[in-house]
Predict the structure.
Amino acid sequence: MSTPLTHAPSPPQADHARHRADGRRHSHRWLILAVIAIAQLMVVLDATIVNIALPSAQADLGFSADNRQWVVTAYSLGFGSLLLLGGRIADLIGRKRALIIGLAGFAATSVLAGAATSFGILVAGRALQGAFGALLAPTALALLTTTFTDAKERAKAFGIYGAVAGAGGGVGLLLGGLLTEHLDWRWCLYVNLVFAGIALIGALVFLPDQARDRNVKIDVPGTITVTVGLFSLVYGFANAETAGWAAAGTWGFLAAGAVLMAVFVWLQTRVEHPLLPLRILLDRDRGAAFLAMFICAAGMFGVNLFLTYYLQQSLGYSPVQTGLSVLPMIGSTMVAATLATSMLTPRLGPKVVIPLGMLLAAAGLTWLTALETDSSYAAHILPPLIVFGVGLGLVMSTAMSTATKGVAPADAGVGSAGVNTMQQIGGSIGVALLSTLAASAANDFMAGKTPTPDVVAQSALESYSTAYTWSAAFFAVGAIVCGLLFRPGAPKQDPHAAPAVHM
């Protein structure tokens, strides 16, 4: 993002041309939103689209069940550890350029992973996907932040963006099921060529060119420290799923990650050009919004992961049926996200809307704990899914809008990266913690029992119910904490905010 410079007065025809360019950019802002939404959808759904395809990929490439998780974890490692760097690179080279590089790189690495002839190539491709996703995600959110500055339009834009972010995991499950069942597991990766191609054309046509901001510098010590620190945290939580919390590979990486993150925070107070200016985090509402994103990401895996297991393993749903089953949740998330940013938050403020959404999400998850092996979809699964989706939509869109509101233009990329980082770390913790708790619950249920089919089925239900319960607890605690942290009242709007693009 370019910092305005002082020039000699320009001739009237130059001013006229510049105003016409601003008007053209203003008229294209909704098309820019479409480009941003497609890029964000691709990044979010790639965290889940491969899940349903894993059994087919495993049979095709011949890797073990123990190694299967690394196909998912490799993406998280590349994505989570490089997010803050990706956000600052977007600030440094310009967001249009960053988006184009990110889209092209994501498409190329998707082809690499899709064409994999070995487990190693597949994992490498997924890690590279995550790396380019770490450039795409904060760039997309920063573009949204700087494109929509008018209060009403910003609310609508963030409602749409929040709906895409909240529903992306469900879309990934649906699309993964359709592609795996009717084509081949590799198309779960090749499909990114379609998303990236459409977004790339839109970016080239509609995004205005942007000069490099020479005031933005890369904080090398901070970059190295936070990248290794985030990698250690994500790896440690991922390793806990298979090796357990007592393993040296778990607590060692977690401890190293915690120390490195503390060093990173200390460095940010000492360097001239910090990677993550702490002023971004010190605002009370923004800090609470970051926390809300963290809690939301940790808790939502109770549905995205364990409900998928339940539908396929307990009820015998096919991949396509599983994907179709989450459509109502996606719909309710999108509706709630739009209503939250356009109507509820401007009137009530995040102090009311975000805790309300978290309580609804907790209620939906608690409702799911009553599921049995003979539960029907319409009576027992659909209602809590809709309630959960509404809660998720209220939280995601409001938190994203609040977290990025008021960030200085030069910090928009790294500020947006902070939001995505909280999501990624929250998701990693959620998956590891919930998987461990679910596995422990299943083992405790099986202790001393003969492993008949009925007992095994009940132990699976016990594990899912435990995951739903803890997910609900995350949201319930989040509702209390966020209710205390957010300032009361509707957010104040800047009456001088420009109505068009500022890039």
